[in-house]
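Intended use. Records like the one below are meant for learning the mapping from a protein sequence to its folded structure. Do not use them to infer anything beyond what is encoded.
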Amino acid sequence: MPVEAPKEDFVKKEISIEEAQNSAITRDVINSILPPRQYEKDGKWVIQYVSIHPATRGDVVKTQAQLDKELQINHALETGLCPIRSELYAQCFDEIIRQVAIDCSPRGLLLLKLRDELNMTINCYRSLYESALEWGVRKTSIEGDFKSKTKEENKSLKKEIEELKIKNNEMMEKIETMKKNYEEEIKEKKKHHQKEIEGLNNEINKLWEELRNMLVSK
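Structure written out for the chain above:
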């Protein structure tokens, strides 16, 4: 039977039912986006879960540095089709989805749908591109007259791929805008809550002062 690895560092503290429910919902959403990984360690099966802890600014900097390092080590191409670069960028995109899902589950699920739709579109174009190349090679080997036609097909497919790249960039810009708007919204809410807390503290201090004055006057 698989052994479940610890999901989080356990700290004994009291939490509300709502916090526990929100934590459970976040875990379910993260698991649906990035499923747990099962592997064998020391003769036992272990299940590794993706963390539900928010990333810090330092984590983001480290991730960027690690991405640049991996691109260089694996000799990823800067332009054109490159499976290595696509895979590394996909991993970073998954991390962005994870961070957004921790702050807001619905937004995380929306990004998941965008990711899946984008992957589906890319796979479709890749299949078309590979099929066209195979067809072109086969036809060229049989008849040299089809060489110019094959070039036109290839040109058309490249144009479609460029259009897909543009669409991908637009999606990434929308995602970045959504993330910035959400961060600003959270910031404003925190500021508003802080003002409310300060107001309540002032009211409490005022009531304590009135109570002391009443006791002194007696």
